[in-house]
Here is the input.
Amino acid sequence: MIRVVLPAHLRTLARLDRNVEEVALVVPPPVTQRAVLDALEHTYPVLRGTIRDHVTLIRRPFVRFFACEQDLSHDSPDTLLPDAVAAGTEPFLVIGAMAGG
Amino acid sequence: MSSVRVLVGTRKGAFILTSDGKRQTWEVTGPHFAGWEIYHVKGSPVDPNRIYASQNTGWFGQLIQRSNDGGKTWEAVGNKFTYDGTPGTHQWYDGTPHPWEFARVWHLEPSLTDPDLVYAGVQDAGLFRTSDGGHSWTELAGLRTQDTAPNWQPGAGGLCLHTILLDPKTPGRMYVAISAAGAFRSDDHGETWRPINRGLKSQGIPDPDALVGHCVHRIAQHRSRPDVLFMQKHWDVMRSDNAGESWTEVSGNLPTDFGFPIDVHAHEPETIYVVPIKSDSEHFPLDGQLRVYRSRTGGNEWEALTKGLPQRDCYVNVLRDAMAVDSLDACGVYFGTTGGQVYGSSDAGNTWTPIVRDLPAVLSVEVQTLS
Here is the structure.
């Protein structure tokens, strides 16, 4: 299972329990950003368009993808995610970028 | 007994204010969609329990929420707003061509006859339509592809389509207004459009009476006389008696004719309301005194309405979609401020009371009169 941590607004939107920070998804290999997000949006259709553009599937500008203390936001969506994410020992984090002054 | 429901969109969520017909005591619920910008919330005229809300953040984009029970529960519906075909370009701030890019829904206008039919005005300026209760949206591309569109240039708030009026008497006639392009009319259900800006004069554009380029802030009409339109422009309050074919200025004795909202009394088609603010660079009331101005003569002759409104040290603004009227007798008038107050008047503006004082900045106010 792939573990995906969602920001609070998207957890609310997906109607997850208030105390649930991450979801577990079945993602067949190869485990890439695209495959994880496809599975996430398939399970939670309401999230379509909130993380990446509906048509181009490009990441929204103020969304970030982290895993294993690395920023994967600028990686190709078809790059393999770290082994620890694929193994389910580390989560894939969807983050709302820091903003403010 | 009649009651009213005030739908308030703010920078950080939606709030619903309800009262009985006396409009003296209020129940406040919210925030709905806490933390999200709610540009507009509006109910269907034919099914008041059907309400639509535009929900947006810079992080996660656009959502449309729908309620079938008067705002008690909500369901996220379709949020895919894709321009028809290859979108082409409009002018960017530096005068270069810029591709049309969807940013947000500014205004939702439910049909006068069908609760599943809704129009959405968006930034970059475009008009979308749903006929399945918000699940899917299709652009009415005739507006964005008409001849003048490549020359439209955004105002400081973006190239936003913020006003949609549906004519209750002439089938297929509708109006939209775009900052900073102007007003447009369709007579065929939104398939084709033409500018209706004759008579507008704007000093902020190279040709003051150009066909397009005017920063129209809002248009209002009375249901009984839909050919009479009232407009608050960047500067100037305007009036048209011929469905927008021509406009005349009716700013009259207003202390300043810059402002954003304009609305019409529910039972008196010649009674209109504006909230003047100091200038385009000072978006707050003159002298720190929050004053609604009312004209009972369709413009030109205005009176200040001050009872119950702060008359010192007040530096809030009232945004374009943040004023509305109910249809009780006497007519109720409501507006929200960027300081988070929602004021209501149950006597057509003679006296005002704050319904709530400390909401996030108010973006929109709509009212439903329920029986």
Summary: Chain A has one domain: 2-96. The CA atoms of residues 5 and 93 of chain A lie 5 Å apart.
